[in-house]
Amino acid sequence: MTEKKAAQKKEKAETDAAAAEGREQKGTAEEATAKEAALAQAEKDKAEAVKIAERQYVPEQAPQAVAAAGPDGQEVPAGEGDIYLNSGAHIGTRFKSGDMRRYIYKVRKDGLKVLDVKTLDDRLKLAAKMISHYPKERIIVVARRAYGQTPAKAFAEAVGGTAVVARFVPGTFTNPESTHFVEPAIVIAVDPEVDNQAIEEATNIRVPVIGMASTNNSLKNIDLAIPINNKGKKSLALGFWMLAKETLKERGDIKADDEFTKKAEDFEYKLKEGEEEEQRRSFERRQRGKDDRFGRFGDRGGGFRRFGGDRGGSSFGGFRRREN
Fold it and tell me: Is the dihedral of CA 285, 143, 234, 153 positive or negative?
């Protein structure tokens, strides 16, 4: 009898354990299903946010929006076109990606691609309308490049968002246990190439991404592109100044442009003492490096610099060219 009770007790314990395991598995499955549903809904919301902004934004008609042609022959937005041109916001690189082809107005004789200023103006205002739909404390702007950090901080301060500058720590958007964790509702990236980790994480959690993009950038995982010179300190300052001003207007925080007391110069990265000279030297080194990659021989030892650096050594096994 005692053995029978013990067996019954053991059987009941096993049944209870199996039931508990079943409930746990069911709970895990339900959590996974709920997570998938939340991500799917977030993806729909992200796509809808772009559509809503596009529907609500009506560009000014050509007769009022166009002034005299700029130095590159472009028709530019009345009143604001000159500031884009003066800041170099329309100057791209010598390279173009397939994604950015439609934003290019022309190619200069020196090979530089020129961005369409009217499209830049329209996209800044469209982006501002999109940003205005999100809680300000969850607006995140990321900038790894030095020139982008000051405008990113100034923009975040102006609209009440958060700037994540310099190195982007993996998990900042996806790991709640991280000390760097922030929960974005929308992300603005200064350079899609350099800020790719932040863009990837935002995409994984189905958060819309606005990207400041030059002619050479890929628009993979970018939901709304702003075609602009994202390498220049003046153009980035102007772009974020305009974006901040238009966002505040869309939210109703200010009614007119003159109520925005900040100036574009307040958004501009300031070179530190000696930095300008160092940048000049860095530029010269890069130019020499480009010459080397296009087939010039090294000065020492006769080896190809492309494969072996200044001393002629090769990266393929450490061989050097034999001297005769």
Answer: negative
The single-letter code of the amino acid at 61 is Q
Which residues neighbour 186 within 8 Å (Cβ) at sequence distance 6 or greater? Answer: 49, 130, 131, 134, 138, 139, 140, 207, 208, 209, 210
Q: Are 246 and 261 in contact (CB under 8 A)?
A: no
Same domain, 257 and 302: no
DSSP 230-282: -S-HHHHHHHHHHHHHHHHHHHTS-SSGGG----GGGGSPPPPTTHHHHHHHH
Confidence category of residue 178, pLDDT binned at 50, 70, 90:
very high
Q: Write out the residue range of the structural domain in which residue 221 sits.
A: 118-267
Q: Token pair for residue 131?
A: 């940003």
Q: CA angle, 187 as apex, 126 and 118 as ends, to 5°?
A: 25
CA distance 193 to 237: 19
| Number of domains, the chain | 2
Predicted TM-score of the model (pTM): 0.68
Asked if 261 and 281 sit in the same domain, the reply is: no
